[in-house]
Write a structure and sequence with these properties.
Radius of gyration: 17 Å
Largest sheet: 4 strands, parallel
Oligomer: single chain
Strand order of the largest sheet: 5-2-1-6
Strand content: 5-15%
Structural class: alpha/beta
Order of helices and strands: HHEHEHEEHEHHHEH
Number of strands: 6
Length: 223
């Protein structure tokens, strides 16, 4: 993202810039949110068609936050629906190896946006950690920062281990191999199962795990 923005601002006459997450300078976070909102529109249409009612909870993983804000977007005005974004807890939020910009970060400027980010006391960005490449980002989309401060969306985190366990669990239970990113949302479904008992929950599986299979083989010590 750093290199793309640097090249773009240096070669604006012949270069088109686009990013796949809801981060970066305006209007990109807004544009990506609106494109991704089709996820929320489809989820709302399908749950009403299937159950005749809205869900109690909508869960999604968060790195920059595009898949999450996409599915949340059509439920944010419904008081009976609680949207929950799950950050990458990495090796634990009490370590320096995580990607929890909202839970452990502070307001700052990164990639042309004012949002929460992982930084030291001098404002220097610190490195994020997650075994999932898509969640290994030291910042967060500015709209998620707004929702956290506004308390219109709940946020939590799960660790690498919890997400990897959920990756295996869903693969075995449903035959669906989720991406490591999406496994964080599945892990929270398991972690907070008492809260969800008897409730209708939508979990956004924002990607397939094909790309993660080699890494999964190494992490799980499969021969």
């Amino acid at each position: 993202m750093n290199d793309a923005i640097r090249y773009w601002v240096t070669n604006a006459r012949d270069t088109f810039y686009i990013i796949g997450t809801v981060a970066g300078p305006h209007p990109y976070p807004m544009m990506v949110r609106d494109f991704q909102a089709v996820i929320g529109w489809e989820a709302r249409r399908q749950i009403l068609q299937k159950d005749g009612r809205l869900p109690d909870y909508v869960l999604a993983c968060i790195g920059g936050g595009s898949n999450a804000i996409g599915i949340f977007s059509h439920f944010l005005e419904d008081e009976e629906v609680t949207c929950i974004g799950i950050e990458a807890g990495g090796l634990g939020i009490d370590t320096n190896k995580h990607g929890c910009s909202l839970e452990k970060g502070t307001p700052g400027i990164l990639h042309g946006q004012c949002s929460y980010l992982l930084q030291d006391e001098d404002g220097q960005v610190t490195e994020a950690h997650s075994f999932s490449a898509g969640l290994d980002y030291p910042g967060i989309g500015p709209e998620h920062s707004f929702h956290m401060v506004n308390k219109s969306v709940d946020y939590d985190s799960v660790t690498d281990k919890e997400a990897l366990d959920a990756f295996v669990w869903l693969s075995r239970k449903e035959g669906i191999i989720p991406a490591f990113e999406s496994s964080h949302a599945i892990a929270y479904l398991k972690k907070a199962k008492e809260k969800f008992k008897g409730k209708t929950v939508i979990v956004n599986l924002s990607g397939r795990g094909d790309k993660d299979m080699v890494q999964a083989k190494d992490l799980l010590n499969f021969e």
